[in-house]
Design a protein that fits this description.
Distance between the termini: 41 Å
Keywords: DNA-binding, Transcription, Transcription regulation
Mean pLDDT: 91
Helix content: 40-55%
Low-confidence stretches: none
GO molecular function: DNA binding; DNA-binding transcription factor activity
Shape: globular
Strand order of the largest sheet: 1-3-5-4
Radius of gyration: 20 Å
Number of strands: 8
Number of helices: 14
Organism: Paenibacillus chitinolyticus
Protein name: ArsR family transcriptional regulator
Largest sheet: 4 strands, mixed
Amino acid sequence: MAYQIETAFSPVHECLLSFLLYKRRQNIKYLYVGPSWLQQIRDMMEPAYLDKLDALDDLTFVDLLSVLVDQCPDAASMETFLEWVNTLSAGELYERLASYMADGKNPVWLHLGEQRDLFTELLAVWQEKYMARWTGMDALREGTREVEEAVRTGKKAEDIVETFVTGMRVELTAIRKVHLIPAYHFRPLHTFAVLKDKINILYPHNIEKPDIFTVSAAAKALSDEKRLEILKLLSVERRSFTDITKEIGGAKGNVHHHLMTLRMAGLVSVHLTDEATFLALRPGLSERLKQQVDHVLKG
């Protein structure tokens, strides 16, 4: 395992992330934005626009747009990015995206021009009505500078990932570059996309500074016997989701809920390997929890 850390900040990533979150909202109760954010979006948007969003089934093209961010000559704003995407023909889009598409039979390939027109129109409205009014972009830029500083100090790449992503180990042998991209809307969790020999990780910016919220999230996670059982299991060795389900029993949905709660509290880390995805107890957990509690009590 040998990879380099790079920063790859662009406002486009946050716009795509928030757009996809509105559609893929099943885990929103675990996120800081919470269900109230959905209502905020509904209040901002025209009903006809929301109807178009609700009618969408396949979001593959939006997922693939993240590939184009690195290829865009000017991704400094969502507006310039969308202008550039609109200049690409269906053939050019295919050439740029085909090697990143796992399923060559996906119907998106048959309608790339139509998909481009549909989603650039929808994303332009999303940018105008929501992202242009959102005030958190400067904080994300600061997050990029923090990663760059950590790289300059000579820290090990895997330790930088663990610190900023708040619980992740990248052990995929094909990966040569890890792009760390600060994100807001998916906090306190991270999300990632493996792109050949590169992985884009949208990590939760600035969430582990101790405050009442982070301490209460940890307290909630530790208040359940099943979750404590999972932590005890992971303290011995890392386990896959299947392993954990077999060991502690219960429905998969319940185990998923427990793991999401533990991840939300920053108590477990995700290990990406060629074999499988594993979960493990985060290193230095007891010490970090004590420091957070002490900081809040003495604050």
